[in-house]
Amino acid sequence: FTFDRCVTIYANDVTISNSVINCRQPDYPAIWFRDGAANGRVIRNEINGIKVGNQSPGIGITCANGCVATQNRIVGPQDGIVLSGGSTAEDNYIGQSRGATTASGPSQHDAIVVTEGNATISHNTIDNICDSLLNQDDAQGCNAAVLTEATAGEVLIDRNYIKRWSWTVFNIKAGIATISTNYFGDIGLQCVIDGGTVGATSTQCRR
Question: Measuring CA to CA, how many Å separate 89 from each of 54, 125, 165?
Answer without folding.
Answer: 28, 11, 19
